[in-house]
Design goal:
This protein has 279 residues and is an alpha/beta fold. Helix content is 50%, strand content 14%. The protein is built from twelve helices and seven strands. Strands 3-2-1-4-5-6-7 form a seven-stranded parallel beta sheet, sandwiched between helices. Strand 1, helix 1 (14-23) and strand 2 form a beta-alpha-beta unit. Helix 1 (14-23) packs across helix 11 (241-252). The model has no long low-confidence stretch (mean pLDDT 96). The structure holds NADP nicotinamide-adenine-dinucleotide phosphate (NAP). NADP nicotinamide-adenine-dinucleotide phosphate is lined by residues 9-10, 12-16, 33-35, 38, 58-61, 85-89, 101, 105, 126, 128-129, 207, 209-210, 212-215.
Length: 279
């Protein structure tokens, strides 16, 4: 019998690690990311827990590397789950990388794994509550529909506009983040029928604010913004990465077999609290 393989991009990141610990209970894990040192440290931790894991250095914004990751994973066994958590935010990097990694990277991952995902398999792409903060304009949809064209990245970048100074660059990066994460949901949903033809599912998760290295950077660099954000969360706390591990494990399970082509917003009530007048 072939080994069951779960691929987790960013499996050494805050949420990725928690997800590997859950899904690694019944599957070998392939970790993908750029930082080999961090991946090696995560692998060591997983092995202490008895989780079989492999490392594949991958920059998912490069289509060739995403394809090499898919080929490597398929060479190890049957790829049954692809959990694509890799992503960057304005706390990590600028507008260009946000679009290249979050939007182009998601296209690369879906294209690379569609052929290798085994029957009954599931792919989960990570979006964000930020995707819900802005309406999808006609212009955005037109750019999203260019996902398979060579100028997709340029079209997305043009929508982020120009920045004149540091402050407007941060706003531009925030817009690019929301747009790129909206694209993750849109592109995931565009793939549902062809995945279903293969008896596979594809869906997305939009986390709210989880206490991971990504979110910690915001807390450290912009404590006031973080404080204001916390006040908007009805749950009154940040999310715990282990909660994301448990949610992902459920969405991969047979019990979630009819959950397909949707975005699961796991935000402690933040979006409802902000956008729906509360009783
Ligand atoms: N934490 C939150 O509150 C929050 C809220 C909303 C949405 N999200 C989303 O949830 C996902 C996971 O977030 P997190 O908090 O766990 O973030 P994290 O701890 O910063 O981990 C992000 C991971 O993405 C990987 N990555 C970044 N660029 C990459 C690239 N070009 N190729 C391959 N891997 C890359 C990083 O690995 P390398 O550096 O090794 O490449 C890292 O392991 C992200 O997509 C994020 O946007 C998080």
């Amino acid at each position: 019998m072939k080994k069951t393989i779960t691929v987790v991009t960013g499996g050494h990141g805050g949420m990725g690690k928690a997800i590997c610990k859950e899904l690694g209970k019944d599957s070998a894990i392939v970790l993908a990311g750029r930082n080999e040192k961090k991946m090696a440290a995560a692998k060591e931790q997983f092995e202490e827990l008895g989780i079989e894991s492999y490392i594949c250095k991958t920059d998912i914004s490069d289509a060739v590397q995403a394809e090499a990751l898919a080929a490597y994973a398929a060479s190890l066994g049957e790829v049954r789950r692809v959990i694509h958590t890799s992503g960057v935010s304005p706390s990590d990097t600028g507008t260009e990388n946000i679009i290249r990694i979050n939007a182009v990277g998601t296209v690369n991952m879906v294209k690379a794994f569609y052929p290798v995902l085994a029957e009954g398999g599931v792919m989960i792409n990570f979006s964000s509550v930020a995707a819900y903060t802005m309406p999808q304009t006609e212009e955005w949809t037109q750019a999203f529909e260019c996902w398979d064209q060579p100028d997709f990245y340029d079209k997305m970048l043009a929508l982020a506009g120009e920045a004149e100074d540091e402050e407007s660059e941060f706003f531009r990066a925030g817009l690019a983040y929301a747009m790129s994460k909206k694209f993750v949901i849109y592109f995931t949903q565009k793939n549902v029928s062809r995945f279903a033809e293969k008896h596979c599912r594809i869906l997305s998760i939009s986390p709210g604010c989880y206490l991971t290295p990504m979110h910690q950077k915001l807390i450290d660099n912009q404590p006031e913004t973080a404080e204001n954000q916390l006040e908007l969360i009805p749950a009154g706390r940040w999310g715990h990465p282990y909660e994301m591990g448990a949610l992902t494990a459920f969405l991969c399970s047979a019990g979630a077999g009819y959950i397909n082509g949707v975005d699961i917003l796991a935000d402690g009530g933040q979006n409802a609290g902000v956008f729906v007048p509360q009783i």
